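Extended Data, panel c. Modelled sequence:
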Amino acid sequence: MANKLDPIDIKQILVLINDGYSNRKIGATLGISRNTVNNYVHQFNSSGYSISLV
């Protein structure tokens, strides 16, 4: 089973996106793959919340 990110990691992803980081740079910074970042961003966008409000 794949490792799950905890809410703090998800928050870090969203903050880094707001700071202008690319998904590749976020993955490198947090030690996760770019595809994992893409998946979490996609899931967050599908939730109806705005990343800019984080």
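The two ends are 29 Å apart (CA to CA). This feature is highlighted in the accompanying rendering.
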